[in-house]
Amino acid sequence: MLMILGYFVAIVAATALVCIVYRRHALRRVETPHELRTGSLDPLLLQSASQLAKQIRERRVSSKQVVEACIRQIERVNPLLNAVVRDRFREARLEAAEADRLLAKSGRPEDLPPFHGVPCTIKESFAVEGVPSTGGLRSRKDAVSATDATTVARLRKAGFIVVGVTNTSELTMWMESHNRLYGRTNNPYNVLRTPGGSSGGEGAIVSACGVPVGLGSDIGGSIRLPAFFCGVFGHKPSAGLVPATGHLPAHQNAARRLNTCGPICRHAEDLMPLLRVLAGPDGEDDSCAEMRLGDPSGVSLERLRFYTIEHNGIARVSADVLAAQRRVVGHLEQAGHVVTPLRLPKLRHTLAIWDSVVALSDPPFCELMFDGSKRRPIAELLAWLCGRSDHTLAAIGYAMLDRVYKFFPARARYFEQVGRELKQEIYDVLGEDGVLICPTYPSAAPPHHWPLLPPINYCYTAVFNAIEVPVTQVPVCLDSS
Predict the structure, then answer these.
(1) 174: left (phi > 0), else alpha (psi -120 to 50), else beta?
(2) Is 361 a catalytic residue?
């Protein structure tokens, strides 16, 4: 009972905080700072990773030039965004010089890695050799990685140069990129609004032309929400396609399949080449398996069946988001396709399904958050109210909610079964050639802290982690503000 009361107090505190922030900031229209406008950018910053790689191989531009352009842009925008939390500028410059040296020596540039000399960033929750991997925890501020995560190693092998690591929420388990170690990341379109999370640092810096591509992870929407809020592309792969070895936290059992690693890109043409680089078992993550990746250019639109869902029975979608989705549907219909409205009543159980899988699979979140100590979330909430906590309100609230499902395992198992039934329903509908169009979030990027009230709007993304299907977030348009 005390635990439930504590969560109630947390919600009340969040309500007060959100109201203050919203009254002061959310209704203001903020002009984009000149640092974030694209009019005067180096043209290299507007190109895709694939285009940059081609120009480097053809010696029309050097890796050093591209890396320097990205570093200059990061230095220009990062004071406003707080997206890159640890840089590797010195190492990246040395690696770019080495990439140019290898290219000069090579008699066959086509034999070099596909993204030779192209810069990228990595979400801070992945191990990058020589760089801290803290998951946003103050208690891990000195935890420097000795090796690369599998996905990071594969990106390096493909020729990428890591210029820095980017901000995340605490242990990647909230949809705003804010923690007490690195602070809060801002949206490039409006710094008073969230870039999303937990891969919000990646979404922000890719959107602001700091790098063409980045690596994120997604257990409930953490790639797709930042991509949606920041106006770029993001892909959540199929469960078991990309290994999460070297990711913090290391999820357990069924939750390992919920957590997927994938690309965030400014150009759609980079999505599939990056996925090919990242995909495949590594011999360590036993949730991974070999899967055949097809060729997108061989897909016939005439053979696809399209479906649309406008509402999941939980969170009402804003007029702007609904209008954008209907424009997509209208475009397909004008092209001669039939788009069938789909109703799945079990979608209203999305949050219970997702929470149940995580609760039955992972150790208690508070054990991870408190680094194995026996500290209770209610005590941390009291410390937060006194301004003495090392954790955010979102993380404390999640630690409390996580314990609710662990105290009621029968309820969690019931909703886990509901999730299996929903998964089969969707598989039966989509088959091998079905495409489902649905909202990513009920509104465009909300003001900072606003997602806490109510803390349920990630329901449009979390369901697809639970049913293990691939999802691509596609930018469509700007909203009315």
Answers:
(1) beta
(2) no
